[in-house]
Amino acid sequence: MTDMSGLTLPIVNVVANTLPEGWEQAVLRTWREGAQIATQYDKEGDPLSRDAIAVIVVRNPFAEPRIHKAIPCGLVELEMYRLEVVDGIHDHWVNPEAGKWEYTYHERLFAYTAPKIHRSQESEWVTLEPIDQIDYVVRALCEAPHTRRAQAIIWKPWEDAGISDPACLQRMWFRIFGDELVMNIHIRSNDAFKAAFMNMYGFTDLQRVVAEQVSERLGREIHVGQYTHFADSFHIYGSYFDEFKRFLETLEKRSFEERTYRTDEVSDILDEAREQIARSLEEEKRTGRKGL
């Protein structure tokens, strides 16, 4: 067994069958084993954060139960995040010149733009040409399911270096083993308590979309397989330790079944959430102000 004592930044390595199980175990271990370190968001008097490198492996991302009740957001917010990642419902909000968002993950994955320089004898000009990286991933997997080249990136060094809210997700990597699509995601900074579960939930739904598109093109069923979540900094902020301790109390008082949802248990709520989100999007188009 490898001796990890004395590591500057501890490594939290979790292997679980379901999303709620993997997230919960990783958060608990970060709380117990994480290094104490300041962050750029601390206010005077905030305790030091707990921080670790995290490697969270979920064997079956769509096994039930799939949703943890103790996530800080509600089901409407969870569904909205999934729709942002998979369907790009807030891509129209990307407009940093107008004080809006710098990016969305969907926009970077489905319409990644890089400057392209054009030259003629008389002039030089630059265009931005969108690249659908997910379409490339699907095509690459169909051509060679075992390829190691099916990946999509997020970071744009010419845009992201120095901005106030740079992208946390950095890369997605896909490969087919037998009839299963595995996906690894690499994230530089991940709020373990308030963001990580939403990320895992949304990213695995994109994994489902890729598996379905590959299945359609290959003419055989490709299932969603192993999901691995790599985080360089998996952290619990000191600013919300009191809230987090209430989360810990919940884990002590309730069984795993009592603190999770099966998808079918909340299907009606999720349907209503989608209707509410649709109304909010219509309002955004009408007023130009962001809704939910």
Beta-strand content bin: 25-35%
> In one word, what is the shape?
globular
Number of helical stretches of at least 4 residues: 8
| Rg from Cα | 20 Å
Written as H for each helix and E for each strand, in order along the chain, the element string is EHEEEHHEEHEHEEEHEHEH
Low-pLDDT stretches: none
Roughly how much helix do the residues carry, as a percent range? Answer: 25-40%
Mean pLDDT: 94
Question: What is the rounded distance between the termini?
Answer: 48 Å
How would you classify the helix and strand content by structural class?
alpha/beta
The number of E-state strands comes to 12
Q: Largest sheet at a glance?
A: 8 strands, mixed
Please provide a brief summary of the model.
It is built from eight helices and twelve strands. It has 292 residues and is of the alpha/beta class. The strands form three sheets. Strands 1, 2, 3, 7, 8, 9, 10 and 11 form an eight-stranded mixed beta sheet that branches. It has a two-stranded antiparallel ribbon with strand order 4-12. A two-stranded antiparallel sheet has the order 5-6.
